């Protein structure tokens, strides 16, 4: 005799939870991009290992489509942000410097990489002045990549250290190619400007067959 009231109570709880998700998404959609970032992203740390970021708030599909979908990426030709239902998107960090707001989101794709998109918003102009793909960490098959971000104290200089390794088979064994890449960006009113890039490559051959 008590089954019906219990089922009704469970249905009521589920309905309240579902409505809250919809309401939260709608509220995020109606907020400005800056408000959404400040509400969900972490204050920027000066040292970040992209391979080990955690405890990030997820960007739902409604909010992504309202604020990020269609943004053109400056440093990758013909690339626009498009919502992928098989991926996950996360708010990462933000920092404020005078009239500029620096912030980033992470796209965790289905292949196994964390892709970091960095944005610069000019509050005096009321618009984005820069959107760039600055980091990719993760691995797939024989490839693995580590990305380490180091920001200056005032947040206007970014050094990215990339360690990329690729294992490839050949007839007598395999080779490991390791690229060590250092890039320095200037962050400001003109966007994220690459001012220096150096690469050192090392190739090791491992013989497994005689």
Provide the helix percentage. Answer: 10-25%
**Number of discrete helical segments:** 3
Uncertain runs are 1-23
* Overall pLDDT: 86
Strand count, sense and barrel status of the largest sheet are: 10 strands, mixed
Number of domains: 1
Order of helices and strands: HHEEHEEEEEEEE
Percent of residues in beta strands: over 45%
Total DSSP E strands: 10
Output the radius of gyration. 22 Å
Query: What is the 3D shape?
Result: globular
- SS-based class: alpha+beta
What is the terminal separation in angstroms?
78 Å
What's this, in brief?
By secondary structure, this protein is α+β, with helices and mostly antiparallel strands. The protein has 3 helices and 10 strands. Helix 1 (3-30) runs parallel beside helix 3 (61-67).
Description:
- This protein is an alpha+beta fold.
- The chain has helices at 3-30, 33-40, 61-67; strands spanning 42-43, 47-49, 88-97, 100-108, 113-122, 127-140, 143-151, 157-170, 173-188, 191-207.
- It has one domain (31-207).
- It is built from three helices and ten strands; from the N terminus they run H-H-E-E-H-E-E-E-E-E-E-E-E.
- Strands 1, 2, 3, 4, 5, 6, 7, 8, 9 and 10 form a ten-stranded mixed beta sheet that branches.
- The model is unreliable at 1-23 (pLDDT under 50).
Q: Which short descriptors sum up this protein?
A:
20% helix; disordered N terminus; 210 residues; alpha+beta; globular; 3 helices
């Amino acid at each position: 005799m008590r089954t019906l009231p219990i089922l009704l109570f469970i249905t009521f709880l589920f309905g309240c939870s579902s409505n809250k998700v919809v309401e939260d998404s709608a509220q995020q959609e109606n907020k400005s991009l800056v408000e959404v970032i400040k509400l969900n992203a972490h204050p920027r740390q000066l040292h970040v290992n992209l391979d080990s970021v955690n405890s990030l708030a997820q960007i739902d599909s409604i909010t992504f489509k309202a604020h990020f979908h269609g943004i053109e990426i400056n440093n990758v030709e013909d690339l626009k942000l498009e919502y992928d239902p098989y991926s996950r998107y996360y708010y990462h960090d933000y920092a404020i410097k005078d009239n500029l707001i620096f912030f980033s989101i992470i796209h965790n794709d289905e292949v196994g990489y964390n892709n970091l998109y960095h944005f610069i918003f000019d509050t005096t102009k009321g618009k984005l002045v820069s959107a760039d793909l600055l980091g990719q960490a993760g691995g797939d098959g024989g490839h693995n990549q580590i990305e380490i971000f180091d920001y200056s104290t005032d947040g206007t200089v970014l050094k990215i250290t990339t360690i990329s390794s690729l294992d490839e088979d050949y007839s007598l064994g395999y080779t490991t190619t390791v690229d060590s890449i250092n890039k320095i960006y200037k962050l400001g009113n003109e966007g994220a400007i690459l001012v220096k890039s150096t690469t050192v490559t090392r190739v090791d051959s491992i013989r497994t067959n005689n």
